Amino acid sequence: MAHQVLAELTVVPLGVGTSVSRYVAGCLKVLDDAPGVTYELTSMGTIALGTLDAVLAAARKMHEVPFEMGAMRVVTTIKVDDRRDREASLRSKVSSVMEKKAG
What we know:
The N and C termini lie far apart (33 Å). This protein is an alpha+beta fold. Helix content is 40%, strand content 27%. Strands 2-3-1-4 form a four-stranded antiparallel β-sheet, covered by helices on one side. Strand 2 (38-41) and strand 3 (46-50) form a beta hairpin. Helix 1 packs antiparallel against helix 2 (52-68).
């Protein structure tokens, strides 16, 4: 398996009102179609897992979604965790903290 990274992706259309859920849903469709990328939606962003190239390609497509839906300004934040000493997973970081908290 190719080296994978975790990335937190947040795409925010500006000037479209207070609810952006329809734009988020549109962005998630991009991730649904992104080969080799899995994701988890959170209340403040989306965590994606895949190769760096696949995740960044998906982020680029996600950035365009609000424009395609009529937004005139979009701010996209990408935070990448590229750890090369062990395999990444969507749950490993959370599990590690919860184990330490419990013990």
